[in-house]
Every structure is written in structure tokens, then in C-alpha cells.
Amino acid sequence: MIRGYWTIRDVSEQLGVQEYVIRYAERTGKLRQPKIEEISGYAIYEPEDVEMMKVRFGLTDAKIRQLKALRQRGDVGRRTRRERGRTSPEPAPAQATVTA
């Protein structure tokens, strides 16, 4: 925390979401761009920014607790299709080739 403001890491940990989710929402206009701390150049967030993120992301206190628990166990993040229980589509059948 920087003088009463939060860094993106602080917000990420507080809400239980990955930093890239916050950055994506800012890039796509779903969240306003954060203020930039003059000396460090860090993006800083005020308490009302964090409250707005809760609303935009549809996060209740119960959901935040659940996300934090998953994150502590390491169950959050990008996973492969197989890890998510999906398999890749079956390969196309081989085409017969005719030789003259």
C-alpha cells in the first residue's frame, strides 16, 4: 500500500482476482484508468476504485472469500484444456490418396 492507496497487487489480493483481469478491464474501458504515482510510476487505486471493481466484476464478500481460498490453494489461473476437463476435438480422419 502506498500512502493510503493500493497497488494492483494489493487490489488483486484483496479481491481474489488475477492482476491481468484488472488490467484487461481497464484496457477495454470497463474500469477507469488508475492514477499513476509520480515518484514510483505505479498505478494506484483508491478505496472507491476497489468498490467499483467489486460491482463491475459482480463480486460479493462470499465470492471474494471463495476466490481467495482458491488462490491460496493454487487452483486459480490459466489452465490447459485437459486440466479443465476438456479434451481437444478428435483429429479429422485421414484422407485416402490415389496414386496413378
Structure overview:
By secondary structure, the protein is mainly alpha-helical. The protein has a domain at 8-73: Multidrug-efflux Transporter Regulator, Chain: A, Domain 2, CATH 1.10.1660.10. The chain has four helices and two strands, in the order ααββαα. A hairpin with a 6-residue loop joins β1 and β2 (43-44). The radius of gyration is 21 Å and the shape is globular.
The SS-based structural class is: mainly alpha
Percent of residues in helices comes to 40-55%
Query: What overall geometry do the principal axes of the alpha carbons give?
Result: globular
The average pLDDT is 79
Content of β-strand = under 5%
Give a brief description.
This protein is mostly helical and 100 residues long. It has helices spanning 8-15, 19-27, 47-57, 61-73; strands at residues 35-36, 43-44.
Keywords:
Multidrug-efflux Transporter Regulator, Chain: A, Domain 2, globular, 100 residues, 4 helices, two-stranded antiparallel ribbon, mainly alpha, 2 strands
Topology:
Blueprint: H1 8-15, H2 19-27, E1 35-36, E2 43-44, H3 47-57, H4 61-73
Antiparallel strand pairs: 1-2
